[in-house]
Specification:
- By secondary structure, the chain is an alpha/beta fold.
- It folds into three domains: 243 residues, Glutamine Phosphoribosylpyrophosphate, subunit 1, domain 1 (4-Layer Sandwich); 186 residues, 3-Layer(aba) Sandwich (Rossmann fold), CATH 3.40.50; 142 residues, 3-Layer(aba) Sandwich (Rossmann fold), CATH 3.40.50.10490.
- Strand 9 and strand 10 form a beta hairpin.
- Helix 4 crosses helix 5, helix 8 packs parallel to helix 13 and helix 14 packs parallel to helix 18.
- The protein is globular and about 80 Å long.
- It binds fructose -6-phosphate (F6R).
- The site of fructose -6-phosphate (F6R) has 14 residues, from helix 9 and helix 16.
Length: 603
């Protein structure tokens, strides 16, 4: 995902900007650029590929004395990852960098072209700088020109713009994409896509709200929310990198649970166009010639795969099978070239998944991966990859990676459904509406978190946990149990609710804890009967449901949704928080549980 850095002050700008981009490397990028405005002269440099290429290009450049600088790492959405498409984009006397997607850029571009503007890049970003300069040419003050520019844009953006018409000012805007403003006692000002580049430089930061824009110089910071002037809400920035990287949360896992809402917005970005799922990565795949999708993965990624198998069969009407990679490798599987082989991996380095992928490729199957780490081994081996864009996941217990995997796989199922025309229009529309709602669904409700904190003290002992659910809530039950066992070291199993009476119910007594996933939109009555059977045998029940359930010993009430995936994602957050709170009470190292590694590169 793109990264933004900005600076106003007297220090060497190039060094701060390049180091800042380095801090944002984890977001993923395929080109980079910087621009410095100093003594009314603008210098800019861009390079495709790794930051090193940009560092080499700028090695003879320095910029001491008061000035402005902006810098960007680009992760291509509109147009190829070339130097021309890298940011900053320039007009006659201004430059802009942008993270996000301008949805109405084609309309604006057409109007500007009719006015005689020539575009050099294929990006949506370039329209911003030309639009600004158009308003300047119409004699608007720079501030008004910027305001008018922002008012013309629809979409998601974090923008920094500099111009010779206001050589001491950085213009900025933020909507649905992170942008942070920082300052210190030496009157230096900083911008960043996250805290990371600002640590050690800014003493205070303001996390800008959606719908804000303004301009900043040594003399003033003017901030507006829509049209109203507001005060930036500055908070101290801890100078410890680790603390700041945790954004004040106690553990990376907690931070990663909380950031799922914004992270999935990145997963969705540019992938729904005119209410249709658009996955550029799949343009060479003909789904009408594919008979089956076989998915292979390990651990949490396997649970995402199981969830996908329900979605793919139900929405895209393609047979879908799922295998644990370490089992698949040695079972002498029968492979058919009409099968699409899909692997899922957060790290892209899991040895068993990688080897399974290589086997499928050798057998002549078309391959695809859903992965979080670009350029990882799995990405390099597979024919195509849909990146999940979760950003670096530091907690060993996977949370946001799982959320983005499931969301990406749901997008895939809908993409195939469209290609094969398997869904009625109204059904497809309902799916898109639900997809768009997921960032909101994932916002953590602090009251629910507090309740889970209180409840967790009752779940620190016992002889085991059963997480139970049906349909897509069965893989979610598996995932909930895995989260709990990984970080609490308590025994937990995920089970299909209907399967309990075929054996495991023998374990039921008051020391058996059942976490019952009871969504309203899928098989509620059937799940309820299964939970009643357990309750009748004295099992302790923690029910998670939007419907009151009187046999529950503990109850977490969820919101009423009409789409099962909304219920899925809300319950996912609850199971993650439950595991977190139990682990904290037990005094465990939440982020680095014993015996586990983040990337499993051995079989
Ligand atoms: C659990 C967890 C692991 C991984 C598994 C596969 O929280 O993180 O179960 O899901 O090791 O790793 P990836 O997805 O990197 O292939």
């Amino acid at each position: 995902m793109c990264g933004i850095v900005g600076y106003i002050g007297k220090k060497e700008k190039k060094t701060f900007l390049l180091n800042g981009l380095k801090e944002l490397e984890y977001r993923g990028y395929d080109s980079a650029g910087i621009a410095v405005l100093h003594q009314n002269e603008i210098n800019y440099f861009k390079a495709a590929g790794k930051l090193e290429n940009l560092v080499n290009k700028t090695k003879d450049f320095s910029s001491n004395g008061f000035g402005l600088g902006i810098a960007h790492t680009r992760w291509a959405t509109h147009g190829k990852p070339t130097e021309i498409n890298a940011h900053p984009h320039w007009g006659a006397f201004s430059l802009v960098i942008h993270n996000g997607i301008i949805e109405n850029y084609m309309e604006i571009k057409k109007e500007l072209q009719e006015d005689g503007v020539e575009f050099v890049s294929q990006t949506d970003t370039e329209i911003i700088v030309h639009l600004f300069e158009k308003f300047i040419a119409l004699d608007f003050e720079p501030h008004v020109a910027f305001e008018k520019t922002i008012q013309s844009l629809h979409g998601a953006y974090a923008i920094l713009l500099i111009s010779k018409v206001a050589p001491d000012t950085i213009f900025f805007a933020k909507n649905a994409v992170p942008l942070i403003l920082g300052r210190n006692s030496e009157s230096e000002l900083f911008f960043g896509s996250s805290d990371a580049p600002l640590i050690g430089f800014a003493q205070e930061v303001s996390y800008l709200e959606d719908g804000t824009y303004g301009w900043a110089s040594e003399k003033e910071i003017a901030l507006f929310h829509h049209d109203e002037k507001i005060k930036p809400n500055f908070k101290p920035l801890n100078s410890s990198k680790i603390y700041a990287q945790k954004d004040g949360y106690r553990f990376f896992m907690e931070k990663e649970i909380y950031e799922q809402s914004s992270v999935v917005s990145e997963t969705l970005m540019g992938r729904i166009k005119d209410d249709v799922v658009f996955l550029e990565e799949l343009k060479d795949y003909d789904f009408n010639t594919i008979d089956e999708i076989k998915i292979c993965a390990c651990g949490t990624s396997y649970h995402a795969a199981l969830t996908a198998s329900y979605l793919i069969e139900r929405l895209a009407k393609i047979r879908c099978s799922v295998e644990i990679a370490s089992e698949f490798r040695y079972k002498e599987p029968l492979l058919d070239t009409k099968t699409l082989f899909l692997v899922i991996s957060q790290s892209g380095e899991t040895a068993d998944t990688l080897e399974a992928l290589k086997m499928a490729k050798k057998a002549g199957l078309k391959t695809l991966s859903v992965c979080n780490v670009d350029n990882s081994s799995i990405v390099r081996v597979s024919d195509a990859t849909i990146l999940t864009r979760a950003g670096i996941e530091k907690g060993v217990a996977s949370t946001k990676a799982f959320a983005t995997q499931v969301l990406t796989l749901w997008l895939l199922a809908l993409y195939v459904a469209k290609a094969k025309n398997t869904l009625e229009e109204a059904h497809y529309e309902a799916e898109i509406k639900a997809l768009r709602a997921i960032p909101t669904v994932l916002k953590v409700d602090e009251r629910v978190h507090e309740k889970l904190h209180r409840l967790s003290k009752r779940y620190l002992h016992g002889h085991g946990f059963f997480f139970i659910g049906r349909d897509i809530f069965f893989p979610l039950a598996l995932e909930g149990a895995l989260k709990l066992k990984e970080i609490s070291y308590l025994h937990a199993e995920g089970y299909p609710s209907g399967e309990m009476k075929h054996g495991p119910i023998a374990l039921a007594d008051s020391n058996l804890f059942t976490i019952a996933l009871m969504p309203r939109t899928l098989l509620y009555e059937k799940t309820k009967s299964n939970v009643e059977e357990l309750s009748a045998r004295d099992a302790t029940i923690l029910a998670i449901s939007p419907q009151e359930f009187e046999l529950a010993d503990d109850f977490i009430k969820t919101k009423v949704y009409t789409h099962p995936m909304c219920e899925f994602f809300e319950m996912m957050v609850i199971t993650q928080l439950l595991a977190l709170e139990v682990s904290i009470r037990l005094g465990n190292d939440v982020d680095m549980p014993r015996n586990l590694a983040k990337s499993v590169t051995v079989e």
